[in-house]
Description:
Radius of gyration: 22 Å
Helix content: 40-55%
Shape: elongated
CATH class of the largest domain: Alpha Beta
Number of strands: 7
CATH topology of the largest domain: Nucleotidyltransferase, domain 5
Strand content: 15-25%
CATH architecture of the largest domain: 2-Layer Sandwich
Low-confidence stretches: none
Order of helices and strands: HEEHHHHHHEEEHEHEHHHH
Strand order of the largest sheet: 1-2-5-4-3-6-7
Amino acid sequence: MYLNPEFLKKFTKQDNISSYGKTIKKNDCKILINEFLLGLDENLSYSLPQKEYFDSNYKKCFELIHGIRNKKTQKFINKNIKNLEDLSNDEKYKNFVNNLFNALDAGFYEIKKIFNSRFTSSNRMLFLLLSFFNKQDLLFLDIETKSLFIETQIITIGCGYFENNFFKTIHLTALNEEGEYEILEQFNKLLTNKKALVTFNGKSFDVNFIDARMSYYNIENNIFDYHNFDLYYFSRNAFKGKQEYFNLKEIDKKILNKNRGNDINGDDVCYYYNRFLNTKNINFLKPIINHNKEDIISLALLLNKLISVWVI
């Protein structure tokens, strides 16, 4: 692992933990809570798709009907059948269309059932489900762990959300192994006030990992009840052919034009955490928390970028 000499100078002096965030001690659990506020510049002051926009796209989406894909959709268009209402005049499709309109009237959960049966996770229509939420409903989520295996500890749970005129990030870090329990409890409190998650590959990793660790500690949770807007899948679709590797750092560089400065790699997190455990030097935690913060901010920026590409 290459470590920049200038970067290493940060670790020559040991700062007091209390000078960097808020510490909580409960029995043997020790955790650190860091909060950061970002002003809403042009990249963070975006609006989510409007419900009217979703309805319009839904009513033009012939692929909601089983057996219809791009080729058959084009045939309908060539016959001047422009939307599902036009298609309802065909006896073959009338009942299908009526069921789709009933689902639209019923709302989010009925629509979600149909989408899950018809589309892959990268489909634009699933992204447009954002129209059922306000920005304040969303919880941006990213975690740092000791390894990719759910039997190991979560180090940091990072969250971001819009509040008043700011984008706020909160980072819950375990200061010892027992602290993992408390950061999970604190995360549960944050989750309660939100309605949907925004992650990057969170369907495969973050959400499953959190659920597994909560189960390990017998902590009740309903994280799977929250709709997850996983930007990893949407990015692979929206930016297809624009880059070879789809990770947040590459997207920052090639899609968002975002400079992370001296940010560490995710693979380095465990190294810094072990150094902290051995030395109790808070400066070894700072790169982890900064990396987590950069990931959360990138999620918020990436959501904006996808809206600019897919909401026309």
